[in-house]
Amino acid sequence: MSWPEHGAMNEALQEKLQTNRRDVIDFSVNTNPYGAPPYLLDKMKEWLSSIFTYPDPKQTKLKKEIAKHLGVTEEEVLPGNGGAELIYATARLFTNQTVLLIEPTFTEYRLALTANHARVKSYVTTEETMWQWTVEDLEKVAKDVDAIWFCHPNNPTGTTISPNTLDSFLTFCYEKNMTVVVDEAFFDFQVTPFSFLPYVKKDYPLLVLRSMTKMFAIPGLRIGYMFGQRSLIQQIQSFLPAWNVNSLGEKAIVTLLQEQNFVNDTAKRIHVERERVHSEIEKLGTFHVFPSAVNFYLLRHVDNRDVEPLLRFLAQEGIHARHTYHFPRLEGRYLRFAVKTRKENEQLLDVLSRWN
């Protein structure tokens, strides 16, 4: 049996590792550990009657609210049925074109591009550079490339690139007439995030994808949006079916866009807990933890040994981690852990302390 393709696949991971625990804490899931805003479930009950009518196929109100939130025009935004739908729709832009992926990163980008007959080139960052890249690095490999696609902050490394580098990078792509696609699924988990909005307003060939399911801990609802250059957004809109966002999803997006205080509070709480957990793990002397700007982080043995025995031990102890066998250059030598609640993190620390 192959390794599960994603996190949050408990049954598949148990089958692969031949374990059978019901009381599992799933550290492979990187949604908000504190849950959704407390009122949201009651709101969903209030909104239930909306499922008996069609949502607006033109998404007029929804686009207006997203545009207002971002400070862009309605023609520069596009709601979606979760980030995955927008990833695959965006990939259709590049049929028979060449796209440079900055990896290791979320594996669905490559799958979406190849499914749409794009040619995929790869630039792979490494531990030696702390998963960082420079404009000079990309200039060497970006010849005859139509687009560059990356995740920021990156999944699974949790890393960000400096604002100065991003500014130079976007200018470089603009001068070379290369489209830039940025997935910001974990944008709002940063305490001080870099904003790509000014470049959209300057009409750069830029597309930015955002998921709302991570921060608000509602992955089953499938809501997200993207923004970018008007002409590119219009093309992607033509690839999507009418009514692609359901009535409950529409109402949830409009409501949750107003929750900036919730977002800010979550980012601060996770920052404090992440740094505490990192410090405690490093004290064990068995593992190396990599810096992260978001709600997950990478870990490996200090001696760089295979982590499959650790992954199995954790599962036997009721802890699921995210393997990295599908990520280029990571290839299973690292595990990714979500930042959970303090109680759950203490259980992880206890199990790690008993590993040798």
UniProtKB/TrEMBL annotation:
Pathway: Cofactor biosynthesis; adenosylcobalamin biosynthesis. Keywords: Cobalamin biosynthesis, Lyase, Pyridoxal phosphate. Its EC number is 4.1.1.81. Residues 23-352 form the Aminotransferase class I/classII large domain. Its cofactor is pyridoxal 5'-phosphate. Pfam families: Aminotran_1_2 (PF00155). The keyword Ribosomal protein does not apply. GO terms for molecular function: threonine-phosphate decarboxylase activity. It catalyses: O-phospho-L-threonine + H(+) = (R)-1-aminopropan-2-yl phosphate + CO2. The keyword Lyase applies. Decarboxylates L-threonine-O-3-phosphate to yield (R)-1-amino-2-propanol O-2-phosphate, the precursor for the linkage between the nucleotide loop and the corrin ring in cobalamin. This is threonine-phosphate decarboxylase. It comes from Aliibacillus thermotolerans.
